[in-house]
Amino acid sequence: MKQSFMKRLYKIKERLYLEAKYLTDYGFGIGQSIAYQIDRDHNKITIVPSEIETKKHVAKTTQRNGKTVPVIDLKGEEVKAFFNANKQFEVEIRKGKIVFTVLEAVQSIQPIVSLDDAREQRIELQQRRYAVGVKDFAQVVNYEQIDIFDLFQSDYKEMFFSQTGNKPSVKGKEKAIKMLSLFSGCGSLDLGFIHEKYDIVFANDRYEKKALRDNHILTYRNNIGNHIIMRDVMELTAKDIPEVDIVVAGIPCVRYSNLNTKDNFRDDCSDIHPIVEQTLNIIKWSKAKAFVFENVSNFLTVKAGIMLKRIRERLNDFGITAKVIDSSALGSPQKRKRAFTLGIKGIEPNISIPPLAEYNTVQRAFEGIENANQQDLFFEPTEKTLERMLYVPQGGNINNVPVHLRAPNKKFSNYCQRLDANKQSPTITHVQDEVFIHPTLNRYLTVRETARLFSLPDDFTFFGSLTSIFEMLKNAVDYRVSRHLAKIIKNQLLPIL
Predict the structure, then answer these.
(1) CA–CA gap between residue 307 and residue 316 (Å, rounded)
(2) What average pLDDT does the segment 383-392 reach?
(3) CA 384 to CA 406: how far, in whole Å?
(4) Is-contact 375 446, C-beta < 8 A?
């Protein structure tokens, strides 16, 4: 069994620097996003390619011979500290993984002066090895799903399948999955599908008469694409709907929310919800082989689960499953539970959540945010709101404010919350309406801080008034969740297309 990797000793201190043409062959081509983890307990640094956009990329450099080659150059303070604390390393470069491991010298003849002296004197070098699979590591870092066989050369993959009797899948050019998006909002749900190479051919949302107006449509067009139309979904007919492979619908959640005490669906005398019924019509008109609905958790439990029952009745040729996903379980800095209903025609689908995820805090989410896009956009608090803020500690809320300063109609503990920098954020609703406060500053959260809590990339730009922007964010889907869903659905859907 021949594995595709190479080893070499590494002598450079105070930074991590690799420059070589062959890096491309191992999955680290120019422009590739990368993620890394420093494991101080085991004295190693592991780097993997990342499909999620990160701030760190494989750069390029021009060698003396005029050739442009990939270069990995990490020189942050934590990297410098790691290399300063250790002296000798072995670097192991595999398909999809680079590992720097500290070498520990074991005296057998005389103390080591240098690595070259050690070789000449045949001093034994012991290497501490703590192997971690690419798939396991990547799940912890950013939920990448990497085929374990990608670590090996094709001859090993063929040998494995010949021995087990299984047939490898033929990987040609991946089929583009045609998608139709409903209730698309600003595009936060669609963004993950776009980044997983879905082809969104139709998107829809309506004009909102209040603060939102058409700003969500403008935001979608500037971040996702021009395929969105502004029209009430109830006006759509079969002739408006193209044939697609999947329908993704962020069905409006107001009538299912516990906070809605005026016209909640749980109090309605009818078991039929017109918007849900129209969504089911559109799935049929589109001849889609899959669908996914996003909503609040109550969507699955209202009236003893009437919504799931109705969906199964009308789409009885689909295998259907549902799951409540907390975005923090996928590495998001925000605790945000949302229900997802997945249906795939002819098979029993699953919504799997990997067992490990990085624990992202508010402080970590806000790192390097000072000059980020739209960081300067936030509401100025009124004098009374500012006075309340002064009393609220990190992790506190309106209950920490003296009674005489409290708003008479805002008694819930989710009002006037100051985020705890060392913990995950609570579920974000409208930043101004509910008064979400910066961990250490006496002000509301900014647009970019709030977007970071939804794991949205900094180049995702919002358009419109502050009120409408925070209305969009209030209804947004966490990017890590949307990307993860797009990935696991693609794995299940492609084989049947």
Answers:
(1) 14
(2) 97
(3) 9
(4) yes
The counts of H helices and E strands in the chain are: 14, 18
Average pLDDT of the chain is: 82
- Using DSSP's 3-state secondary structure scheme, residue 351 falls into coil
What range defines the domain where residue 425 resides?
362-465
Q: Residue 471 domain-assigned?
A: no
Q: Looking at the predicted structure, is the pLDDT value of residue 320 above 90? A: yes
Q: Which two tokens stand for residue 394?
A: 């990190």
Shared domain for 96 and 115, answered yes or no, is yes
pLDDT digits (tens, 9 = 90+) for 238-265: 999 999 999 999 998 654 444 444 445 5
Contact 30, 85 (CB under 8 A): no
CB within 8 Å of 112: residues ≥ 6 apart: 105, 118, 123
- Residue 307: left (phi > 0), alpha (psi -120 to 50), or beta? alpha
pLDDT tens-digit readout, 262-275: 445 544 556 688 99
Ordered strands of the 68-74 beta sheet = 16-19, 68-74, 59-62
173: in domain: no
pLDDT, mean of residues 1-23: 63
Does residue 27 register a pLDDT over 60?
Answer: yes
Helix (H, G, I), strand (E, B), or coil: what is residue 100?
strand
Residue 71 has a pLDDT of 86
For the chain, the C-alpha Rg in angstroms (whole number) is 26
Picking from 130, 164, 198, the residue at the C-terminal end of a domain is: 164
Q: How far is CA 222 from the centre of its chain?
A: 20
More confident residue, 2 or 318: 318
> 269 with 206, same domain?
yes
The strand pair at 246-249 and 228-230 is best described as: unpaired
User: Contact at 8 Å (CB) between 289 and 244?
Assistant: no
DSSP 374: T
User: Is 485 found in the same domain as 394?
Assistant: no
Neighbours of 44 (CB within 10 A): 22
Residues 252 and 183 sit within 8 Å (Cβ to Cβ):
yes
Judged by average pLDDT, the poorest of 5-14, 331-340, 408-417 is 5-14
Q: What are the C-alpha distances in Å from 66 to residues 23, 61, 286? A: 17, 10, 53
pTM of the full predicted structure? Answer: 0.67
pLDDT tens profile 67-117:
788 888 887 778 777 777 776 777 788 778 888 787 653 333 333 333 344
The phi and psi torsions of 213 (rounded to 5 degrees) equal 50, -125
Q: Cα(436)–Cα(143) distance, rounded to whole angstroms?
A: 29
Long-range contact set of residues 150-153: C-beta below 8 Å, sequence gap at least 24: 150/27, 150/95, 150/96, 151/3, 151/4, 151/94, 151/95, 151/96, 151/97, 152/1, 152/2, 152/3, 152/4, 152/95, 153/2, 153/3, 153/4
Distance in angstroms (rounded) separating the CA atoms of residues 232 and 476:
19
Looking at residue 434, what is its pLDDT? 95
